[in-house]
Amino acid sequence: MGIRPRPISSPLIARHFARGESQMTGLEAFSLAGQVAIVTGASHGIGEGIALAYAAAGADVALAARNETDLARVAHEVEAIGRRAVVIRTDVSDLDQCAHLIARTNETLGAPSILANVAGVNRRRPIVDVTLDDWDYIVNINLRAPFFLSAMFARDHIARGATWGKILHIASMTSFRGYHDLSVYGATKSAIVNVAEMQAVEWADHGIRVNAIAPGWIETPLTATMNPSRKKWVEDHVPQGRYGVTSDIGNLAVYLASKASDYVTGQTYNVDGGFTAGHPWPHLAQ
């Protein structure tokens, strides 16, 4: 006997619309006007880029990281766009501070409907040299924090009876293939892909969509000091022949935070100039 598909019933359709889902089309579907977003790791790089992209799309933004000076700079940029910003110093490895982040956002900007878990760290080590301290440091920030902060976000969402929300995780090229000296980092980034899937399934009935972005090599202040030979290797092996920029991630983040992506959940998007698709071969003479 085959498995019978679940019938489409009027209660199911009613629940669909009760969750705030719509048939909105065009540029209006990409607007974040009226939304409140939390971005961790917002003091620089990809986190800063996502925060500014959210603001440009109309969201007010709670900026979380450990460096208040850099957060203040990003807040000024958000306000220059015409949106509200609040700086909330947060070490995401401390779950009490994560809980404070949710509460403080509610107090200052209103109920958050978007969460971007961008904060991340790494320590490059050969596997045989990895210490328990290395493991705990990377896992606590890259995996434990987004898992539990997302749960806090969802708990707040459900308690309020909210019907629409978006969560974004940051995965990596290391989610899908091995690299030297990145074992613990890669383990956390592989796990975050599955976390997005699990959360997407479990919270679907509450109108929360959960997705991830896996960036490739992105230009940030950290890449400015990269060895020139390594930089050239990257440019030679990425089919588009260049590093990405933070707006490449920010633009996709806006889509995944907007109503335009309401039927998208549990997915991970590679933004790497085609690197994971394959490497360009030299042009050979005929």
Structure notes:
The structure is a single chain. The protein is of the alpha/beta class and 286 residues long. It has 8 helices and 7 strands; from the N terminus they run H-E-H-E-H-E-H-E-H-E-H-E-H-H-E. Strand 5, helix 6 and strand 6 form a beta-alpha-beta unit. The chain has a 7-stranded parallel sheet, with helices on both faces. Helix 4 runs parallel beside helix 5 (132-159) and helix 5 (132-159) runs parallel beside helix 6 (183-202). It is 42% helix and 13% strand. The chain has one domain (33-270): 3-Layer(aba) Sandwich (Rossmann fold).
Architecture blueprint of SSEs:
Layout: H1 10-18, E1 36-40, H2 45-56, E2 60-65, H3 68-81, E3 85-89, H4 95-108, E4 114-117, H5 132-159, E5 165-170, H6 183-202, E6 208-215, H7 228-237, H8 246-257, E7 268-271
Parallel strand pairs: 1-2, 1-4, 2-3, 4-5, 5-6, 6-7
Helix pairs in contact: 2-3, 2-8, 4-5, 5-6
Question: In summary, what is this structure?
Answer:
The chain has a single domain (33-270), classed as NAD(P)-binding Rossmann-like Domain (Rossmann fold), CATH 3.40.50. It contains 8 helices and 7 strands.
